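SUBJECT: A protein chain and its fold
Encoding: whole-number codes for local backbone shapes
Chain under study, with its fold:
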Amino acid sequence: MTIEETKALIKNFFESLYEKLKAESEVLVQIPVVEGNEPMWAEGCKSDKEEWVTWRLLPVQVSEEEIAELEENIGTKLPQVLKIFLTTYFHYFDGGIGQNPVEDKFIGILNAWNPMLVRNGYLPFAWDREGYFIRCMDLENMPDEENCRIVQIDHEIMFDFDEDTATREELAAEMKPVADNFFAYLKMLLLECG
């Protein structure tokens, strides 16, 4: 898939998911009023009257330096598809996606981050809907992103590993398949929502 096709697919994913959730219930696209999240309020929201407001998708504006800093913080280069995913829209989606609000950029991927997983070729990017499993992109087949599986590991089982000596083989035995690649993963999330 080309970069332009990837950008269009991810943009469509975010917009479709937002519309599905909003059609199901306006509550699913609301956030509490807190300092810093005003740029994401839907048109017409006023904080002096509301405790909760409807949020909107907001195109991401981040610099290459911010992406480089994120990569340095997580200890690996982002695959192109994840870079596009994180730089398309600011949003408050959770449940397998990882929030990326304007007031706390990249918080979803940072909350899922684990040095033991990264060191062994798994890039954590989000938690599952229930908060038990860490979702990861298996980087074993990089740079062929379309052959990088999405897997998950129960966060509690990770306490059984020595963070400094755990091997890829040990972790692989505990990884559960989720999707064949990130594109299939996004499609799965949309189907689960509808």
